[in-house]
Structures are given as structure tokens and as C-alpha cells.
What does this fold into?
Amino acid sequence: MATTSDIRKGLCIRYNHDIFKIVEFLHVKPGKGPAFVRTKLKSVTTGKVIDNTFSAGHKIDDVRVETHKFQYLYNEGDTYHFMNTEDYTQIALQKDTLDTPDLMKEGEVVTVLINAEDNLPLSVDMPASVILEVTHTEPGVKGNTATNATKPATVETGATVNVPLFINEGDKIKVETDKGTYQERVKE
It folds into this structure.
């Protein structure tokens, strides 16, 4: 058993007869009244995200998890296949258990959280950022840079990311996986 002071991003807890992963949290200490923790929880079975508030000191049932490095191999529709980098065993996960499947390219190494009780995979944690190549974007209009103007760009995985006007097709960009936002252009 853990308490609200143990809440951190990525913690898996048992709540309402399901296992949830904490996506966001905020400790709130109002001037009047007791402190509480506002959380955003993502179900590892259905992928549904809910908001929940725990009062300070509330007991939470945390799930013991192990982390293993897996390499993303390929996907068949909504089924994504991964290989353990240590013992080369393969697992298949559904798309809704992945946080940002559209930013994952083949060969990407990810961290898979596995429930220590029944050895079932719970969720996939992407690296903080990935480097992807821009496959399609409209050319930027010269003189249209008075403000932080952006344009949509399609990257090699098929995802669409808003990028600055100076990014062209063939450029490699660094994308933050949490928000799916452009960070910087990467020079080879």
C-alpha cells in the first residue's frame, strides 16, 4: 500500500477494479481546507483516460511492475509486435495500450511495464523524444515569419506534427513524445 505522497508519473495503481497508470498529477494545498492530489489516470486495459482527485494521505493500491526494454518490430492493423532485447521473446500489444503509437518507427527501443504478479504487459513508455524524417510538408512562404508561424508536416511514421516554416521535406526533426510536438531540427 502506498499513499498520495508516493504518487508520481508512470506509477501503476489498482483503482475501481482496473489497473491505471498515472499520466499527470498535481499536489494542491488550498489556503482553506485539506490538501489533495489531482490526477489524470489512463486505464492500461481500455486506454480510457479519467480525472480523479485523491485527498491527502489517501491509501492507494500500487501495482508492482518490472520494466524491460523491447524493440518495436512491426504492426498488423491495431496489433503491435515487440521483441525483448535480452531474451528475444516476442509480445503483441493492442494499439490502445500504447501512448503515442503514431510516433513509433520500426526498430525503436521502448520500455514495457510488466505486472510482476501475472507477467502481463501493462503499458509501453516511449523515449522522451524521437528523431523522425519529414516526408511531406508545404514549402514555407518567404516573409510570413512575423510571428512563430507553423505548418503541418507528415513524418515517416505517418504522424502529423506542426513545425516551423523553415523545415523542409527530408529534414530530420526531434519530436517530444509526451505531447507530440516539434522540439528542434537535427543535423546529421
Observations:
- The chain has three domains: 2-62, 65-125, 129-186.
- Residues 48 and 86 are 31 Å apart (CA to CA).
